[in-house]
Amino acid sequence: MDNEHLHRYEANVDGKVAGFISYLNRPEGVRVLVHTEVEPAYEGKGVGAKLVEGALDAERARGGKIVPECPFVKTYLKRHSEYADLVA
């Protein structure tokens, strides 16, 4: 879920924020994905991967591009070439 007010994508589990990807907005619809954080209780359960997938799908739906500065997002993109077209 895109929480535009806080400039981050959030993953919710049982009504709680389990993780987030913070971003910065740049001109022309580009978002810099800066940092991914998953709450310790949800680490190792696939929350981070689902969070990145959801953020990338949301970017595709809005017609945006990304700049992956976060190492976790960079690693995800290396393994999922189907999202390569989103990188500015």
Explained architecture:
The chain has two helices and five strands, in the order ββββαβα. It has 88 residues and is an alpha+beta fold. A five-stranded mixed β-sheet has the order 1-2-3-4-5. A hairpin with a 4-residue loop joins β1 and β2. It is globular, with a radius of gyration of 12 Å. The model has no long low-confidence stretch (mean pLDDT 96).
List its traits.
28% helix, five-stranded mixed β-sheet, Aminopeptidase, alpha+beta, 88 residues
How would you spell out the order of helices and strands?
A: EEEEHEH
Helicity range: 25-40%
> How many separate domains?
1
How confident overall, as mean pLDDT? Answer: 96
Strand order of the largest sheet: 1-2-3-4-5
Distance between the termini: 22 Å
Walk me through the topology.
Blueprint: E1 2-3, E2 8-13, E3 16-26, E4 30-38, H1 47-62, E5 65-68, H2 71-79
Parallel strand pairs: 4-5
Antiparallel strand pairs: 1-2, 2-3, 3-4
